[in-house]
Amino acid sequence: MNATGTLHDRGQSLWLDNITRELLESGTLARYINEDAVTGLTSNPTIFDHAIKNSSRYDAAIRQKVKEGKSGEDLFFELALEDLTRAADLFRPIWDRTRGVGGWVSLEVSPLLAHDTNSTLAAARDLHRRGGKPNIFIKIPGTPEGVPAIEAAIFAGVPVNVTLLFSREQYLAAAEAYLRGIERRIAAGLNPAVASVASLFVSRWDVAVDGKVPSELTNRLGVAIGQRAYKAYRKLLASARFQRIANAGGRAQRLVFASTGTKDPHASDVLYIKALAAPFTVNTMPEGTLTAFGEHGEVGAGLAPDGGDCETVLTGFAKAGIDIDALAARLQEEGAISFVKSWNELMAGIDSKSAVIVQAS
């Protein structure tokens, strides 16, 4: 058994942070599922921008959709849903076998809506309806404006992957929104078993402080933030509030470690996979990181439920002049801006490709 299988057997789900039509049509995704214990998949605007821009496999579909009068966002979401519904079908046996714990794929609402609560909710409900599969998460950013939309979407029965979380406090705000949505469903006599995950971005922390801290703290901030969030997650699962929800038939909103590809070329290419091994969590990783971990990864002792040495490490960063709360807010805002940039590039790329394809027809 390779390291990915070992990690899965120890209780952590491995998801692929990528989707392309080639992954689907070549059988590569099916191989990852069968041989590397991959049990889910995530996507974002950057991933789809690269997939569509760098492949001719979408050309026929674009040509047909342009003939049907589709363009812009509407055309994109049709392309994305074609890919993600196929991926959802591949993962469906896992979803059935685990009763919805695993087997999920994720599609993000337009990042242009990150600061618009009502429009985010409307988009989430529309994409959930259009997806037509029970194992599609709709990604909603955990921005201050996104938090009310998360609660409302959960109350409406929409499975949600909360994205763009960078700190314990941001994670807890998303978790509170989820719990409130489920409690409202229980009070209304609705089925409380609406799934959700909360995605904590890890590697961008270390990029943000690169060259600004002593060498002994290099590449330690992202892991410490993950440890701190994991402690809060375990405490929430043990709380009386969650136990009441579980007794009513609700389920846990699982913690996802996201952005776990190593950015520092001098560090281990599986740094965040080994360091953040923890039961009943998810690690969603780029394709190269998945392959690297399968080839030479090792599963360590795993995260301590009490957060281990995270507070000591974080105190070291504070002494080095790093304001964790301010940096968390900055990273979330920069993440939202980055996704908007990728979204605009994606829309421009689709428009350009559509024009070329139509002209060549």
SSE map:
Elements: H1 3-9, E1 13-16, H2 21-25, H3 28-36, E2 38-41, H4 45-53, H5 59-67, H6 72-97, E3 104-108, H7 117-131, E4 136-141, H8 146-155, E5 160-165, H9 168-187, E6 196-201, H10 203-208, H11 221-237, H12 240-247, E7 254-258, H13 271-275, E8 281-285, H14 287-296, H15 310-319, H16 324-360
Please, could you describe this protein's structure?
The protein is built from 16 helices and 8 strands. Strand 5, helix 9 and strand 6 form a beta-alpha-beta unit. With 361 residues, it is α/β, with parallel strands linked by helices.
Mean pLDDT: 95
As a percent range, the share of strand residues is 5-15%
Number of helical segments with 4 or more residues: 16
Strand order of the largest sheet: 1-2-3-4-5-6-7-8
Q: For the CA atoms, what is the radius of gyration?
A: 20 Å
Number of E-type strands:
8
Query: Largest sheet, described in full?
Result: 8 strands, parallel, barrel
SSE-based structural type: alpha/beta
Distance between the termini: 50 Å
Helix percent band = 55-70%
Please write the string of helix (H) and strand (E) elements. HEHHEHHHEHEHEHEHHHEHEHHH
Low-confidence stretches: none
